Amino acid sequence: MTTFGAIGIASTGLTVYRKWLDAVSDNLANMSTATSTTEAAYQTKYVVAQEIASADGGGVQVAGIELGSAEGRLAYEPDNPLADEQGYVRYPDVDMASQMTQLIMAQRGYEANAAVVDRAKATYEAALQIGRS
């Protein structure tokens, strides 16, 4: 694998981790979004990654976004303007602890791939410097 190959593979990882970070931030931002019981709740987003098989190293790509349950959870809030006749509203079934864990994992993965790009770039610059000497 060449230096440019390492940068290419790491950049595919950066893209997947960025999509994962976007999905987690959407989930956290919508975890308190109430809807009426006749509507679907916000559906939690889950990023699905898959390997890119290639002769020059490959990488990873987003295969799709899976959505969680639209059922959500019911909460008794009779003062909420969206409440039904029994006083219930629907909230998404987003678990904050799980989402924060995923946020940390995605952030660390993004940082690791960014470090690979930086190291490959430094290696390439050093090789150019040797060639100038």
Task: Note down, in words, how this protein is organized.
This protein is α+β, with helices and mostly antiparallel strands. The protein has one domain. The protein has 2 helices and 4 strands. It has helices at 3-29, 96-132, and strands at residues 45-52, 59-67, 73-76, 88-91. It has a two-stranded antiparallel sheet with strand order 1-2. A two-stranded antiparallel ribbon has the order 3-4. A hairpin with a 6-residue loop joins strand 1 (45-52) and strand 2. Helix 1 (3-29) packs antiparallel against helix 2. The radius of gyration is 22 Å and the shape is elongated. The protein starts with a helix and ends with a helix.
Features:
133 residues, alpha+beta, two-stranded antiparallel ribbon, two-stranded antiparallel sheet, 4 strands, 48% helix, elongated
Main β-sheet, spatial strand arrangement? 1-2
Low-confidence stretches: none
Overall mean pLDDT stands at 92
Topology as a string of helices (H) and strands (E): HEEEEH
Measured distance between first and last alpha carbons: 25 Å
Measured as a percent range, the helix fraction is 40-55%
Shape: elongated
How many distinct folded domains? 1
**Tally of helical segments:** 2
Total number of beta strands: 4
Secondary structure category: alpha+beta
